[in-house]
From TrEMBL, chains A, B:
Belongs to the NAD(P)-dependent epimerase/dehydratase family. Its EC number is 5.1.3.25. This is dTDP-L-rhamnose 4-epimerase. The gene is wbiB. It comes from mine drainage metagenome. Keywords: Isomerase.
Length: 390, 390
């Protein structure tokens, strides 16, 4: 298959691109390196020494013998270039990761809120519009988040894979009718809200133009490297530990490595879904190699392998490393504790064999967090974004 | 109250601004005259001879003794100007009509799709973001459309006012739990889709920042003038009859007046909700004068007074005028017939006394459509937008 990976320089996009290339697919990366610009804006850097994209791609060519061309096209604002690329390349699939992906970053200021909405909505819409205009039957694969449904205090319902069977009253008030609807959303940040808007965009273009779309609702990604990024130091993947882009488990690992207490926001009773980066790349190839038929509704899969409470993760890392646990005020506007019962059968049924936390965690602590601890700027650990002004 | 009307030069915005001013409110108009630019782009003009906004405002000052200042701020792209205006004026309420409002226009081409998404999403988000940043507790009143729920073939459920009580299975699969959710959407065009995105934006800002929002889901507006726009020829309201911006009933009236057959797309079995422009302006003042409390969820009201099948409207106008009825292929991707049972009790309970079609139709035929028939360009009657390429 020929596959365009939009956002192919990012934390998920880079190992996905290499994995697809290693599997023999013809990969083209689209990326404006905007994630690296955000690092400079925030005064932070990946804990791991990631190389310039040109250097990464040259290393991959040297290691694998395979070329990955790269185009710096801004999906949200360079529609004509995007359309020309689609028409020229005629991809079988487009992986869409060209979105601002951090909830805390999206809440930093009005400017960050507005950037996140403008970028994410226009990037998604331009891609869908361009696929229709190109006349090419490309399969669009997007990574969304399980967070679109919110993290309420629970209530005992199961999170299905995208669609929910409900019963609604009839017009005459006498009976009830079964309906299958897109699962209602309840986003907890501007970032999460843009993923809810994406869901509407996919639904519409699938219905009106029969676009083939797979939307992977991903849990929190942990881990750093994959089989391909381990092949050469110059292929190393990004590891974010700062208060904006760092995800909870990677932040704990790095904090443990540098002797900083593990910072738990609030009670730690928040339950989240997790997936290792190696499983992310496998899920992508499974989704791409098992595309929906034309005319099939949007395929929504929960891309996660286990769920944990934040405090349990902190205790696990603490037990492994001896780090202290520190409770801080939670800057997020969310329930202090929640359950997260979720269905995630589809990717397993396609052949995913999950990497579990208990197996991979120690390697991350030793191989990555401790190995690069000298590169950590401790002043960037605190999370400074506030969800509300009050 | 001090009320900013964004989109105050448009078909709904102009009579709303005058009505609120006549009721003693302090009105400020924000409008970049983009609707007039669309007329020039399409080579069409209002059937009625609307005056330049400056001239309209001078006439209103002469007639009523009341001033309405006007600011040409683009909500979607001039955030700083919008924020400065809010901080300076400290409005009690903001009426948000600054959106591209025609489904056929939104489907004309990829450029029109992209303009509609970019403009409508960024305009709404910038407004909500600016109200939060300003720190002012302004009530945001938006006009959406009943079309967000789609016009499927029916199915016997009632359209409630925004929220739907459903039953969902429990996590253990043993029972069912009642939930109240935002009514699921099923948009039939890019325009309608942007109104679904608006709904998500309102939901989020109401939840996270306690913004007070009223979202009026309006039916198809018919009629031209209101008590205030009739006071002086220079205050006359817009009447669109072209294939992009003309709404179904006004198009029939004008077609009858110029001896053109009434153009029914498809079978005419499509049921739509209707409201007279005089009732639109009354609904707005009722919504503004009965605002939600801080902390109250988004108030969603169905703003309509009656429902009709398109073919029945054509027969009504035909009986009144002798015009022929012509069935054309339907360019829209929609069910050929549908029911539309809907609840619209809230605005009636606030005091709305509806203008019914049977009462107001003849005045429109004689007083507007025939009076200005000489200004009609018949070549602009056909609807040229196509919903799909196939």
């Amino acid at each position: 298959m020929k596959i365009i990976v939009c956002g192919g320089d990012g934390f998920c996009g880079w190992p996905i691109s290499l994995h697809l290339s290693a599997r023999g697919h013809e990969v083209v990366i689209v990326d404006t390196l905007v994630r690296r610009a955000a690092d400079r804006e925030l005064g932070v850097d990946s804990l791991t020494p990631i190389r310039a994209l040109d250097e990464r791609l040259a290393a991959w060519r040297a290691v694998s013998g395979r070329s990955i061309p790269w185009h710096a096209i801004d999906l949200a604002h360079a529609y004509d270039d995007l359309l020309a690329l689609l028409v020229r390349e005629r991809p079988d699939a487009v992986v869409h990761l060209a979105e601002q992906r951090a909830a805390p970053y999206s809440m930093k200021s009005p400017r960050h809120k507005r950037y996140t909405v403008d970028n994410n909505v226009n990037a998604t819409h331009n891609l869908l519009c361009a696929v229709v205009e190109s006349g090419i039957d490309s399969h669009v694969v997007h990574i969304g988040t399980m967070g679109v449904y919110g993290y309420g205090s629970g209530g005992g319902t199961m999170i299905p894979e995208g669609y929910l069977a409900v019963e609604v009253p009839t017009a005459d008030g006498q009976g009830r009718i079964e309906r299958e609807i897109l699962h209602p959303t309840d986003p907890g940040s501007i970032y999460h809200m843009t993923k809810c808007l994406d869901q509407q965009l996919f639904y519409y273009y699938n219905k009106n133009d029969k676009l083939r779309v797979t939307d992977l609702h991903q849990g929190v990604v942990w881990g750093t490297n994959t089989a391909e990024t381990r092949l050469d130091d110059r292929l190393i993947n990004r590891f974010d530990y700062d208060g904006d882009y760092g995800t909870v488990l990677n932040r704990f690992l790095m904090q443990a490595a540098v002797g900083h207490p593990l910072t738990v926001h609030g009670s730690g009773g928040q339950t989240r879904a997790f997936i290792h980066i190696q499983d992310t790349v496998r899920c992508l190839s499974l989704a791409l190699e098992n595309p929906p038929q034309r005319g099939e509704r949007v395929r929504i899969l929960n891309q996660m392998t286990e769920t944990h409470r934040v405090i349990d993760l902190a205790r696990m890392v603490s037990a492994m490393t001896g780090a202290d646990i520190q409770h801080l005020d939670n800057p997020r506007n969310e329930a202090s504790r929640n359950e997260l019962p979720a269905v995630a059968r589809s990717l397993i049924s396609l052949g995913l064999e999950p990497t579990h936390l208990q197996e991979g965690l120690l390697e991350e602590v030793i191989g990555v967090a401790r190995a690069y601890a000298h590169r950590c700027d401790k002043s960037r650990i605190p999370c400074t974004s506030k969800w509300t002004t009050s």
